Amino acid sequence: EAEDAVQEALVRAWRGLDRFEGRAALRSWLYRIATNVCISMLGASQRRARPMDLAPVSTADSPLPAALPEATWIEPIADARVMPAGGDPAEVAVARESVRLAFVAALQHLPPRQRAVLILRDVLRWKADEVAELLGTTVASVNSALQRARSTLASTKVEAGGPSEPMDDAHQALLARYVDAFERYDMDSLTALLREDATWNMPPYDLWLQTHRDIRDWCLGPGIGCKGSRLVPTMANGSPAFGQYKPSAQPGIWEPWSLQVLELSGGRISGITFFLDTARFFPAFGLPPRLEA
After folding, report:
1. Mode of pairing for the β-strands spanning 194-201 and 208-209
2. Domain spans of the chain?
3. Per-residue pLDDT tens for 226-250?
4. Across the chain, how many H-helices and E-strands are there?
5. pLDDT of residue 164
6. Confidence bin at 158 (pLDDT 50/70/90)
7. N or C: which terminal CB in the chain sees fewer CB atoms within 10 Å?
8. Which of 81, 75, 12 is nearest to 41 (CA)?
9. Cα–chain-centroid distance for residue 71?
10. Across-strand partners of 260?
11. Which of 200, 230, 224, 218 is nearest to 51 (CA)?
């Protein structure tokens, strides 16, 4: 969808180039075109979601439901594609915040124009008059849209522009313990790293788990095939992530199984999403097609 939006914005800019009068910078003119394209596309598309938005919490003995279509889900994106290369820490923090899975999920509850206003004002820190000029509206309309967007977002308990936790030594140690526990498949050690309200979910299925007991029992029951996996670190949506490889029938070979994206909060893991479409996601993240002993 993002690639389609870029293509459409460039086509519109090319067709309208003879009408560009030069009263504003070319970049600003292109930005306005791209913004309007995105707003139009959002209005025509369905809301994307996470499993927690679509179904009640499951238990370890819940049957695996049918997979839902790709267009249902919020999907991961590699940090390398969205983070400013060599950017200053403030720019990186803004970029990380704007692609967090929880924040992107919360944005789905907003109408397109409110979504644009919220991102421009609370994430990118634009002034109200700058947003009004970009969207071709008034400052009063921008302030009204922002107030409504903040009110809606508050109900999701996700803060726009809230600071992301830095990847300091403590977080790196937490991730090292997670990798060790997962690769040993020690579910007691792994669940000890989770918050009490941590979620465990697996698009394209709307099954999701929350209690430590259900997560542990599911991993040792239906998910036992993941025992013996290896993890390869990467970054997705401004968060730590891992390519997970399961043992194959061929000795000494591990095959792609999922892209794990972790969410951290308060020194613990608050959520783990297992994206199972490895044929699409592993190449996009530069992850190898298999691992060998």
Report:
1. antiparallel
2. 2-50+77-154, 169-292
3. 999 999 999 999 899 999 999 999 9
4. 13, 7
5. 57
6. low
7. C
8. 12
9. 14
10. 242, 274
11. 200
Helix ranges (DSSP H) in the chain: 2-15, 26-44, 51-54, 79-82, 89-99, 101-107, 112-118, 128-135, 139-154, 169-184, 187-191, 212-220, 278-284
Query: In angstroms, rounded to a whole number, what is the distance separating the alpha carbons of residues 245 and 173?
Result: 22
The CATH classification number of 2-50+77-154 equals 1.20.140
Residue 206 and residue 51 in contact, taking contact as beta carbons nearer than 8 Å: yes
Lowest mean per-residue pLDDT among 150-154, 166-170, 256-260, 268-272: 166-170
Q: How far is CA 141 from CA 129, 188, 239, 284, in A?
A: 10, 52, 34, 39
Task: Please state, in angstroms and rounded to a whole number, the distance separating the CA atoms of residues 85 and 267.
Answer: 27
Give φ, ψ of 78 to 5 degrees: -70, 135
CATH topology of domain 169-292: Nuclear Transport Factor 2; Chain: A, (3.10.450)
- The token duo for 64 is 């695996």
Number of neighbours of residue 82 by Cβ within 10 angstroms: 15
| Residue 209: burial class (beta carbons within 10 Å; 0-12, 13-18, 19+) | buried
Q: 162-187: per-residue pLDDT in tens? A: 555 667 899 999 999 999 999 999 99
The token pair that represents 30 in the structure block: 């292109």
**CA atoms of 176 and 69, how far apart (whole Å):** 34
For 25, half-sphere exposure in the C-beta direction (CA atoms, 13 angstrom radius) is 5
pLDDT value of residue 25? 74
Contact 260, 244 (CB under 8 A): yes
Tokens standing for residue 113: 């124009």
Q: What phi, psi does 44 have (nearest 5°)?
A: -95, -10
Which residues, in sequence order, are CB contacts of 221 under 8 Å at separation 6+?
60, 61
